[in-house]
Amino acid sequence: MNTAALYKHRWTLIRMPLALFAIALASAVWWWWNPMPPTRLTISTGLADGAYPLHASRYAEALARRGIQLDVQLSAGSPQNIERLQAHPATADLALVQGGFGWSSAVGPDVPKAPVQTLANVDIEALWLFSQGAPLTTLNQLGGLRVAAGPEGSGHRNLLRRLLAQDRVPPEDIRWSELSGLPARDALLRHEVDAVFMVAAPRAPGVEALLAAPGLRLATLQGTGAIAERNKYLESRLLPQDAMGANLPSADTSMLTTPTHLLAREDLHPALKRVVTAVALEVHGQSGPFHRAGEFPSLRASDFPSAPESRSVMLRGPNLFERHLPFWWAQVAERLLLIGLPVLLVTALLLLLVPAWLRWRLEGHVMRWYGELRFIEDDLASQNLDVGGMELSHIHNRLRRMETAVATMQLPEELAQHWFTLRQHIEFVRSRILEYRGR
Q1: DSSP conformational letter for 167
Q2: Other CB atoms within 10 Å distance of the CB of residue 343
Q3: Bridge partners, 237 (sequence order)
Q4: Angle at the Cα of 438 (from 435 to 439), degrees rounded to 5?
Q5: What's the pLDDT score for residue 103?
Q6: Among candidates 347, 264, 245, 360, which has minimal Cα distance to 309?
Q7: Global pTM?
Q8: Deepest of 147, 358, 391, 401, by most Cβ within 10 A of its Cβ?
């Protein structure tokens, strides 16, 4: 198809295909390169009597206000939570995990190397050890006792095994019970177990039940600073008297603590990482028995690599769209800016430039013949040219070929005036040749 036909049908042959291609390109980029985030997430928590399900329920409420559904899964503890994150395909998008299961833990090759990231450290968990009678002061005293430390594979039992190994207490010296929380408290009161060990936040239902139970004593472990020095994921903190209520505890108690990590799959959509981090800031900003208001959430001393999106939210807050628009509309606006606007600008430029280039080419064809006429006029006007019969005949043949070419030239209607003007100029030059012949 020639240039004139393309220019004549530029709306159907140029502009419409360009617009359709732009829409297809923007849709493909939107769908594959930067798809909309899902609106349903799953979080793996822990045992029902711990603080993790409570945190997750608050996350679910906050996310629901943003149009995102959060499904809460109970689990046996932190190891199972990490397994769910690193499964192929993953069975959870988010998880709450106690400290000691990432790069700060020196427990050898059994540490899961999950492709996960920390969105925030959201809380402080303490290592709670309860017994009857005189409070325990060392972990060595657990040798030969019946200890309720949660089910096999739970974070409670894994951490206690690790600390007992450092004190050279073989695991087989402990008579393990899978009870935890309220059932463990009841078993301890009935003397069915001798001690209960938990890793939980102070407000976990199981911890509150054990603290409030008459006759049960919270261990006052000695050397908590030395234990924390050997285990970088632990920290020695003071639980003040009456921090949990009247006479709970009855005196200031030095406790071993570890952070609670809010983890996400590494391939979780960046927008979801941002919104979950914003929710964590909303949920966990208050003070607790072990920390002041504003200390959490944080990324200090994290056991896992921190997500860039969470660092951005903690430093600068949500981006402009997510700060002022509902979550779904914020994602639409972001994609319109990053995808739609560039495609629109490039398409608009092409819609202007391609027809203009075709018009320039058509006008160039006309101007080429004007140049030829200019050469002929220069030849006729030259003082050094001997305009004889042969020369005039040669010029006349050039004009005839030019006229034939111009007659077959296809130009759109808006360029028809150029075509008529060119033919008039050809006739004008021919008339001058006739004048020379008449001399």
Answers
A1: T
A2: 18
A3: 255
A4: 95
A5: 59
A6: 264
A7: 0.74
A8: 147
Please enumerate in sequence order all residues whose Cβ is within 8 A of that of 247, keeping only pairs 6 or more positions apart, or say none. 241
Angstrom distance (rounded) from CA 25 to CA 344: 11
**Tokens matching residue 355:** 């027809």
Determine if residue 150 is left, alpha or beta; phi over 0 gives left, psi from -120 to 50 gives alpha, anything else beta: left
387 Cβ neighbours under 8 A, 6+ residues apart: 380, 436
Are 208 and 232 in contact by the 8 Å Cβ rule? The answer is no
Instruction: List b or e across 236-269, with b for residues whose CB sees 16 or more CB atoms inside 10 angstroms.
Output: bbebeeeebeeebbeeebebbbbbbbbbbbbebb
CA 24 centroid distance within chain:
24
pLDDT for residue 413: 64
Write the CB contacts of 51 (distance below 8 Å, at least 6 apart in sequence). 123, 125, 200, 201, 203, 204, 260
pLDDT for 417 equals 67
DSSP state of 136: P
Quickly list DSSP for 33-52.
ISPPPPSEEEEE---TTSSH
Q: Are 359 and 10 contacting, i.e. CB atoms less than 8 angstroms apart? A: no
CB 387 within 8 A of CB 380: yes
Delineate the domains of the chain, giving CATH numbers in brackets.
3-22+338-437 (no CATH), 40-318 (3.40.190.10)
HSE at residue 223, side-chain half, CA atoms within 13 A, is 11
| DSSP output for 211-275 | HHSTTEEE---S-HHHHHHH-TT-EEEEE-TTTTBTTBSSS-EEEEEEEEEEEEETTS-HHHHHH
- DSSP letter at 96 equals E
Structure confidence at residue 384 (pLDDT): 46
- The set of residues, in sequence order, having a beta carbon less than 8 Å from that of 104 and lying 6+ positions away, is 232, 233, 301, 303
The amino acid present at 428, given as its one-letter code, is F
d(CA 385, CA 395): 12
How far is the first Cα of the chain from the last one, in angstroms, to the nearest whole number? 48
What is the C-alpha to C-alpha distance for residues 290 and 236, in angstroms, rounded to an integer?
10
Positions in the chain short of pLDDT 70 = 1, 103-114, 379-392, 405-420, 432-439
Residue at token pair 């709450």: 96
